[in-house]
Amino acid sequence: MDQREAWDRFYARREKNGSPHPFDWFFGYKEISTLLGSVLRGLPPGRARVLDVGCGTSSLGLELYQRSSVQLHVSCLDFSSAAIQCLTRMLQDSPPPCHPLSKLECHLGDATELSRLFTLGSFHLLLDKGTCDSVLRGCPQRARRLVSECLRVLRPEGCLIQISDEDPDARVPFLETAGGANINIGEIARVNGISYYAYTLCPKASDPVLT
Ligand SMILES: C[S@@+](CC[C@H](N)C(=O)[O-])C[C@H]1O[C@@H](n2cnc3c(N)ncnc32)[C@H](O)[C@@H]1O
Questions:
Q1: Which range marks the domain in which residue 102 is found?
Q2: Each residue's pLDDT tens digit, 175-194
Q3: How many Cβ atoms from other residues are within 10 Å of residue 19's Cβ?
Q4: Which of 27, 30, 160, 172 could form a disulfide with 126 if both were Cys (CB 3.0 to 4.6 A apart)?
């Protein structure tokens, strides 16, 4: 599903059913919090920049922003205006973050054009929960572009974490052709016999970061 209109309809239908509340693909923040905590603790001191690509109305970016004791600047991006409107309302209703200087911004934009929206080499951490999966089902070429755009806006020492139910036999060769390096795979959950993986990758050392 890489059609914006289909996602708009999906989120608009959910909103009609009551006040804005998170809807999570696969699972929410809790299942990934240990992994995220270990990545954030490994960063140099100072504010860390995080981008949730294809955030939808997930709890991931919102809870990370609220619960992190490390100062974060979280950007949540989706191309569905219905999702971004709903997330913006959830943010307005949410309690203040643990770290008083943390902030969260919602962006309406296309994840295959990240380098037009953000400075190259600016993020410490990119999160993709189910987004690459949905683009892959519609158009593998666009999915490759999504991954390469993620890698372009990452800092050289940063990492991209993709959460997916796709088997490593298929996902790893795809990520390699999209330009990912040092790919690590961890099974983070098993629900009803389905394994969910965290694929962690970083930009190739040779990739130039141009501004
Ligand atoms: C499977 S859902 C996952 C949503 C969210 N990450 C979660 O975990 O619940 C895929 C999301 O990717 C968004 N999406 C798909 N293609 C996109 C693109 N090219 N640019 C930005 N967002 C996109 C959709 O609108 C949808 O919110």
A1: 3-203
A2: 999 988 899 999 999 988 99
A3: 9
A4: 160
Q: What is the pLDDT of residues 150-165, one digit of tens each?
A: 999 999 999 999 999 9
| Position 103 in a domain | yes
Q: Which strand ranges, in their side-by-side order, compose the sheet holding 194-202?
A: 103-108, 72-78, 48-53, 123-129, 154-164, 194-202, 181-191
DSSP state at residue 70: S
Specify the number of domains making up the chain: 1
Between strands 72-78 and 103-108, the pairing is parallel
| Residues in contact with 206: Cβ distance below 8 Å, sequence separation at least 6, in sequence order | none
Q: Please report whether residue 209 resides in a domain.
A: no
Q: Whole-model pTM?
A: 0.95
| Closest C-alpha to ligand 1, atom 23 | 54
Paired strand residues for 187? 197
Q: Where are the beta strands (DSSP E) in the chain?
A: 48-53, 72-78, 103-108, 123-129, 154-164, 181-191, 194-202
d(CA 70, CA 129): 22
Residue 129 lies in a domain: yes
Q: Which stretches in the chain have pLDDT values below 50?
A: 208-211
Å from CA of 112 to ligand 1 middle: 11
- Ligand 1 pocket (Cβ < 6 Å) reads 2, 7, 24-25, 54-56, 58, 78-80, 83, 110-112, 129-131, 134-135
Confirm whether 208 is domain-assigned: no
Ligand 1 center from residue 45 Cα (angstroms): 30
